[in-house]
Write a structure and sequence with these properties.
Blueprint lengths: L1 H5 L2 H9 L14 H7 L3 H13 L11 E2 L8 H8 L5 E6 L2 E5 L6 H6 L3 E2 L1 E2 L1 H4 L10 E7 L16 E6 L5 H7 L3 E3 L11 H19 L10 E4 L4 E4 L27 E4 L1 E2 L5 E7 L10 E4 L6 H7 L14 E8 H8 L15 H12 L5
GO cellular component, one term: cytosol
Enzyme class: hydrolase
Organism: Paralvinella palmiformis
């Protein structure tokens, strides 16, 4: 990292020849290539670019080491057999938050530094948590071989992953039942997970949160039941429009399926590519700024949604109920904020956040503009 920052190409070449780990990152999550770019060390950046380009470019919560196997979801008989298989593993979710495991001998401070692991168990150890109706179990998929980041040295073939909703239990009961575990808060807790765990935790959280909010049919008000391994809810009223085979006026009713709310996030830059417009909400930690983001409204394109977040090209309508401050930052400011070295103690969302990714890519593309 120091060689990249100082622009010492001889040292960079020597370290690479000696087998230095090119995947190592700083505490803020940036590689040697990023460091060379941030500090405008063009020759070092050219050496490290092929390594950077070969690395996977997936957003943190979008990565998934599992094959979702959508065709199997409708087969309840298969699902019941799969849950009782020796190749099945279960993660536990409490109020849409995952149960994670720590070394029980660690102090509270040591736990903060340790990466939590999703607490997963075989059927024999969790079968008593599964309801007879099977309506608190969802199927996530089966591990793929490229998920070795989490399961080193273990065969993953047809190892099915399920999530059990244990929200009916008190959190204290969960800890008594499984010592050394805790329910991981959503933010910033989920950002501490490994990439494979984060992907399935996000999948399970989204589905279970949807189930908790739609116990009744939006069309007729009758109770609904879980179906398709957790990817559908069926209205118990047989005459409900959601149970009719024919399409209704305006298209087929889609309320039985998980709700997806598209959002946009954008890095707004000046015409000369030297400034980035960042803002902070009142709910942000003190000193943190981020890119502008918001929900896509009906009928909008991604571009239209982004434009709605700003006023014309360089102006911004600030709603003080939501946005506390917004300002232009220089490229140098953004570098210092990413590295957590800004003199005013300003900083950006962590490396696993999309805003961090957007700003890092902007710095890479504009590193050597004149």
């Amino acid at each position: 990292m120091l060689a990249a920052k100082e622009g010492d190409t001889d040292a960079v070449h020597l370290l690479l020849e000696k087998g230095a780990k090119t995947t190592l990152v700083t505490g803020s999550g940036h590689s040697a290539y990023d460091i060379a770019i941030f500090w405008k060390k063009e020759n070092c950046a050219k050496i490290l670019k092929p390594i950077h380009d070969a690395l996977p470019k997936e957003n943190f919560f979008s990565y998934s080491g599992i094959q979702r196997n959508a065709r199997k979801r409708h087969n309840l008989e298969w699902m019941r057999e799969a849950t009782m298989s020796d190749a099945a593993e279960f993660i536990l979710m409490h109020n849409a938050q995952p149960l994670v495991a720590y070394d029980s001998t660690l102090s509270p401070k040591a736990k903060i530094r340790q990466r939590p692991l999703l607490f997963n168990k075989p059927y024999t150890e969790v079968h008593h948590l599964i309801k007879e109706s099977f309506d608190n179990v969802i199927y996530l998929g089966s591990w793929t071989q490229d998920a070795s980041e989490r399961k080193k040295g273990e065969s993953l073939a047809e190892r099915n992953v399920f999530a059990i909703d244990i929200s009916d239990m008190r959190e204290t009961e969960v800890k008594e039942l499984y010592p050394g575990t805790e329910v991981l808060n959503v933010f910033p807790g989920l950002l501490r997970l490994g990439v494979a765990d984060a992907g399935i935790a996000a999948q399970a959280r989204s589905l279970l949160d949807w189930h908790s909010k739609y116990p009744y049919c939006p069309c007729c008000g009758s109770k609904t039941t879980i179906a398709n391994a957790g990817y559908k809810r069926i209205c118990t009223n047989k005459s409900c429009l959601t149970n009719q085979e024919t399409k209704q006026e305006g298209g087929k009713i889609n309320t039985p399926y998980p709700r997806v709310d598209p959002t946009v996030i954008c890095n707004i830059v000046s015409r000369d590519n030297r400034y980035s417009l960042l803002a902070r909400q009142k709910s942000f930690p003190g000193g943190m700024y981020s890119c502008l983001a918001g929900f896509v409204e009906p009928g909008e394109s991604v571009e239209q949604a982004c434009k709605r977040e700003i006023f014309e090209e360089v102006g911004l309508i600030v709603n003080h109920d939501e946005i506390e401050d917004a300002r232009w930052f220089t490229r140098e400011d953004v570098v210092l904020m990413l590295m957590q070295l800004h003199p005013d103690r300003l900083f950006l969302p962590p490396q696993k956040a999309i805003a961090n990714r957007l700003l890092t890519e902007w710095l890479i593309k504009t590193a050597f503009i004149q």
